[in-house]
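User: Good morning. I'm curious how flavin-adenine dinucleotide would be positioned relative to this chain. Could you predict the structure with it bound?
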Amino acid sequence: MAIECDYVIVGGGSAGCVLANRLSADGRSRVVLVEAGRDTPPGRVEPEILDSYPRIAYFNPRNIWADLRVSLTPVPHNAPDTALPPRRYEQARLMGGGSSLNDMQANRGIPDDYDEWAASGVQGWGWQDVLPYFIRMERDLDFAGPMHGRSGPLPIRRIAAEIWPGFSRAAAAACAELGFAAIADQNGEFGPGYFPVAISNVNDQRVSSAIAYLDETTRRRSNLTILPHSQVTKVLFEGREATGVQLMRDGVAETITAREIILAAGALHSPAFLLRAGIGPAEKLSRLGIAPLVDRAGVGRNLQEHPAISISTVMAVTARLPRSLRRHIHLGLRYSSGLSDALPCDMYLVAMAKTGWHPVGEQIGALMTWVNKPYSRGRVGLRTASPLDEPEVQFALLGDERDYEKLRLGFLLVARLYATSAMQGIAHCPFPTSYSERLRDLGIVSAKNRVLTTILSRLLDGPQWLRRRLIDGLVTEDLPLAELLRDNRALEQFIRSKVHGIWHASGTCRMGAASDPEAVVDSHGRVIGVRGLRVVDASVMPWIPRANTNLPTMMIAEKMSDHILR
Ligand code: FAD
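Assistant: Good morning! Here's the predicted structure, ligand included:
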């Protein structure tokens, strides 16, 4: 079957759903949205996806690109065998993309983030340019005024501190004890301080970009076609003009021809499409047998992520999440590392009052901190030319020494928070945490995991000496916290081997001027060097903002849709 349209959007994720809605709104253009995973139509979204507690959804192999493995830390050129083994890195494979299974944190970042984009030559992307799109997107249920939208498709709210569990309240008191200021609205006040975390959620249910933007009215538009279960395998070209895509639906190859092809497949898959089409570093592509089309060094480079580390704790029984509350993250903290050349608010922290769906996860809380303004850069490349093979992903977290130093200081701050009087009696036996493959396996809902964790949870609520023994001998794979705090070498070893990402992959097809060899698309998302092809997703960010990346990605799609229609 061959379909003809004006715009084909590859990927129905955070950006793709926004694009599908906005580009089809005027009724004049025929739009096709192609998503490899399943659809989440109104009224039929599974409880697991709607759940305000997201960790069941994102550990379920059914919802993700299950074969994707990444290198988190730098791979030494001369000794690749010494690199840490590749790890899972959950990337959504269903309608709504990351917004259908992420933590729902709805964070704009700070004005400087976007002014920095503009200052680097990405015209039209300063704070005053992007703010109207953050506003257009949202329906803030708590705040009004010039900084907020009240009628956009995406509801945003915060959980009132009065109903927070003891752990979250104690974490807020600990922040106050260490001198941090209280902020009411993280998306309207941009200095350092602690605040109730904004989430894209209403009536205690997730609102993904698919739920917000592909509602029933939008889906009834005769000029919009949605194709779930359809994996795009190739962008088709005539010379340097992109003319359509090839896809596999139910095992059958199909073609869609379009006036414009818009890649919205996410920061790991969008650059892979370009590389397979011959757009990228010509020499490397030739070695894989791919005929170069446009020699563009920047494709797949500039990969960014927020490097994170956590200290967990067994929460006092009275401090745990009550059964009446599904949402587990209530408190956020934006702070500055204080390093000499560091920018303000270059660090972030969240308190989690639950770390797994199972009985042990309900007992264990965590304070996780991350480098909000990282310098390290990784890359996405190809292992093979086949569209069915996942790309090679090297994040190189902490590759830049400044990021290591910031994360070390962040770890020490977390330890200080646990040592405040506010946390005493609430947080037992704080221990350094590995976000390990074992923990991910435990995160998959199964009878075996329930039995194992039920037994362990009973023991963890036993006497203090037993809890200590279990934590040190069974729960953590690392040295006790006190030892890490005493021994700089051990701490460095821990941080470098246990640093993890938080699924904020971005930057691999960065916006910029055509004269900049590292730029991949212009400020309207057009791929430099070809016609008829754009990238509109988290890939195009020149710098990762000091924020979780979902809201910024949706903002990008909102703004780019205006550029495309103009
Ligand atoms: P995605 O949303 O990933 O969309 C890409 C889509 O393209 C996917 O649906 C994918 O299946 C599809 N696709 C890929 N290849 C093909 C192909 N060949 N054919 C057809 N379709 C294809 N951000 C926040 O702001 N707050 C959070 O709390 C938060 N937590 C996160 C937790 C997790 C587990 C994850 C995964 C992400 C989280 N993020 C969070 C990050 C945020 O969700 C992402 O930055 C955002 O979703 C990126 O949007 P995107 O449109 O670039 O890509």
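The CA atoms of residues 336 and 342 lie 8 Å apart. The chain has a mean pLDDT of 95.
Let me know if you'd like a different ligand tried.
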